[in-house]
Fold these 4 entries.
Entry 1:
Amino acid sequence: MVKKLIINADDLGFSLGVNKAILEASNKGFLSHASLMANTEYFNHAIEEIIPQCKNLKVGVHVNLTCSKALFPTNVVTEKGFLNNTFVSLLFKIKSKKVLESLESEIEMQILKIKNAGIEISHIDGHEHVHIIPSINKIVRKLAKKHRISRIREINEGFFESWKFNGKTASFSNILKLFLLKFLSLFNENSGDTGFYSMLNTCEINGFNLFQFLKNSRKYETVEVMLHPALSDLDSPEYYQTLHPRFVSFFQNSSRKSEFDLCFDERFKEYEIL
């Protein structure tokens, strides 16, 4: 049986370098999906100049609660109107009625902004995986049903199977991330239909590990491959000055270019790209 792949680029709309990388990887490579951030600097550029040129690219919502300006004006999880949260701060934030209402309003406004731009939304996920936090996951599933979004990203990645192929190159932080996300997923309504690759190597995916996994893994017929491609040389120092240092180091990491290059790997021809 030929394995089916969803090859997804996160962070569309985050920077010029991300947008340009997704354009090229979609038109000349094997990239099939991208997750769009509705409240970032290069959202309009993605809508006006990138997506219209990507005839086969399926676009979803990349729920963003950890950077950039909030769309919901009276959002109580902001600092001076900006979503300066982290995954951990959102996880442990007391979920009062006002907080939950702010989260739901913000997420729905992000969905509507993308929808109203003429995008047929194929899926929904979260920047820095915030949609896996159970209280937020419940909101995302409610809104996905309301707006007829058929697929929600799930972290269906078995630790021991993933470790077999990715353990040697897994950072300690990514090991902790996988354990945490798998634990939190126990409290979510998961379909379990689509496998996920890979938290253990997240943001540093390499072709050797990936294709060994795809060749030998038997658990899922369909697997989502999450990538973060970017051509960071196209981003200006002035733009980086507007970002939190953790995002600057993310963009400047050499894995952005290597994950971009991976989008063109001829070995993807052995699989059915959805």
Entry 2:
Amino acid sequence: MTINQTTTLKDTMFPVIEVPAIGIVDNTEDTLYDYDDIDDTGYKFIMREDTKQILSCMTDEYKLVPNKKIFDYANPIIKKNGGVLKEVTIFGEGARTTVKWHFPKVKVSVNKGDQMTPEIVIRNSYDGSLGVNILAGAFRLVCSNGMVIGVVAQNYKNKHSVYNVSLNDIESVIDETIDKTKIIFKDEFPILVENKIKERHIVNLIKMFPIQANEIITQRLIADKPKTFWDLFNVGTNVLTHNMSRQSEATHTLENSIYKAVKGWALKEIPSA
């Protein structure tokens, strides 16, 4: 799959059109397509109008949501809240797009002074692989398919087949996402960094992995010698990143579950006031 990494939103805003999948096309001088005697097959092509590249063949139920509509609206809202455009990645000649912003003014120190900042990722596709998706947290990009993995603070999804969300709804989702992410970075991450793990937490982490990964996770635990819940979380994500299939849905599900589990263990260790 072709992958193009850039730093500008403009590259994602190419024009897209819908073209009936089967039929007789009669080109005229005035319009690109003038459809006469088109067979109604229930399918349509999604095509880049600038390059004539066919991005997908979808059913008529598919609702086209252009990147331009999403990002023209979302980018100013995120910038208003202190977000800075960080990364734009386009997959498959434009079939999928992942855009990442970060918030450099909201930082948390983890693991001996390492700084982390919250991020928002907005994804969209023209091939049915995903709908309009807004995530917040701290992420890594899985290059082969555009999936993002990490600490998910908020995850908003809307399928193209039922797309009926107004731009005002998207604004409220973004605002809520930013607020929730800032809370996680300021309140939750320090809990993981400041509290020590016990042997049972190591055992619990091992049990989260499939049996065939037990030797790998055990070796990593011996090598890294985690002391805090933050260390333990990073051991788990390290094994998933480097030793398990990135194409497996089970891997993605497990990685997104590790943070929730480790956070829960840490919270139980905090003495009652």
Entry 3:
Amino acid sequence: MPKNLHKFYYKDYFAGIYFCIKKNSDKNEVSTNNEGTVEIESRNNQLLESSNQSYLDEAKKAFGSINTFVEHGFTLDVRYPGLVTGVGINHEAKVEGEFKLGLHLDYTTRLPVIYGSSVKGVLRSVFREENLLDILPILVPNLKNELEPIQRKMQSKPLKAWADAIFGDDDDRDSRSPYERDIFFDAIVVNTNSRDRFLAADSITPHGSDPLKNPVPLTFVRIASGCKIEFRFRLTDSDSLTANEKETLFKAILIAFGIGAKTNVGYGRLEYKD
């Protein structure tokens, strides 16, 4: 089984596969023989079967030192159908049976990650919702009591001002000292689901102008539902909001709005379980 999923998925996955380029009048087509197709299917299984708790436990040793800088955080469960991240990374060689979309895999820890910059971007983008403070307690009722004092404090000024205070001025470079800024670390998978997996295969079928004409499914890898993801921060007080209150606010936002690609069709939904 692969010991480094990043290396396996982006280097070893296609190694030794026979490729044939066929030229026609419109474009070049890439194909492989039956042995190549069988080998790709085998490597798909290797990738998924390696995504178990033993792999996670071994990989955790690579980021143990980073946790000394983490002062705040929480763990959320991935809801069905799972979480999609890294689909913008090219992973297509036109081979039948291949996983065609990318996956964010940290090459040091070897784990699927949600980049800290993505976490920060999602959190900041929500501050454009004018009624954010009103809808959060409705969308996340189990945090309603914790959100009420935060809601009262944040009513003192516009959300844009709060976004600048928490995340830095969107229109200029952040002039604050690094010790005064919040740090958003990469979010990582820390536990597998009930089937002892943190990755799963999935398919989507993009449709053109004619949704019934020649639909071609795209097979890809997602973070499996039922996994636990740890969101990690080093937070500071911002105006009247304490670091702990910001942690609660961030948790509520991620539960309410989700993270990753394709949240509009249900992916990337999270929940908090005690």
Entry 4:
Amino acid sequence: MKPYKLLSPSNQSNCVLFNSPHSGSTYTKKFTKLTDLSLQTLRSSEDLFVDQLFSPVVDFGSFMLSATFPRAFIDLNRDNEELDPLLVNDVTAYKDTLKVSAGLGVIPRVVADQTPIYNHRLSIDEANYRLQSFYFPYHEKLKTLIKKTWNSFKKVILLDCHSMPQSSINLSRRKDPIDVVLGDCFGHSCEHEIVIELKYLLQEAGFRVSLNKPFSGGFITRNYASPSNNIHVVQIEILRSLYSHEKKQTKNSEFLSIQNRLLGAIEQFIKRFEC
């Protein structure tokens, strides 16, 4: 299985790239045999249909990269050294982060609701197989796209696309309802003008938008951003229940409407920052 799907425009006409690292939905028999969880439970960690939600951006002249494999198998939005010693045998060196401690390292120990994925430990060979065959090739492709775009336009704006369950908003104890969260690592991953313009355009499209709370940006946002070199990254989290039935894991009747509103804002954003 190829680790990524790349949608290419007939002509790259702008410096905006799109990335969907958590929407992969190919659950191989080799993987599902390692767990007693149902497919529905495994998919609770998946950014349902985010790749489909954003895929028409190729018509605006942008590339879009998305994962084919699921987040429960390996998480692209983590450092490759965030291996979980409670899951993987013979881990000699790892980054002991809060995500790893919570079971959400580069190879997750649990799914979104904290249900354990495995009833046994994984070998270091299995961990290395997933990193070498899926994680590194994906990131190499993303690096290639960033380099190609920078060489063409001397500027890159990477929009890292995700979805968030309603439960994550509930846990954040926000009193005001939100539809979209934009993360710029509290001003460190992109020029302020970029994220403020994106926020404004999404609000004009009718979305309730928050900045950095409760999601300020993950590994991809932090790792690839270099505003001083004109490489800017913004993480986008869109409320999953807006366009899907979370429990049924199907699109709802509002999918096309939400997509059209979202793409309208994105198209205006691309025109605003045409490089």
